[in-house]
Amino acid sequence: MVNDEHYLTLLKEVYDPELGINVVDLGLIYEVREETDKLYVRMTLTTPGCPMHDTIVGAVEWVLKDEKPKIEVDVVWEPAWNPSKMSDWAKDMLGC
Question: Which of 29, 36, 44, 82 has the lowest CB atom count within 10 Å?
Answer without folding.
Answer: 36
